[in-house]
Amino acid sequence: MAIIAYHNGEIVSVEIPASAELVIAETEPGVQGDRVSGATKPATLETGKVIKVPLFVNVGDKVKVDTRTGDYVTRV
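The structure corresponding to this sequence follows.
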């Protein structure tokens, strides 16, 4: 959850968590047998952002994303 600091009714700072858990809205189907290769594919998150994910990640999976870099961290 973001922490927002106000002073005299104005926002003076915003702190966001280091990661967020988001759902994969669209990606190509997973490829059986390529779980260890380290290959990636594009996936669209529920927010509309496109990130690279491992081949085993599928539509509907929840993933952890680094909010500082926008990179995939792990499947949740």
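The longest strand covers residues 19-27.
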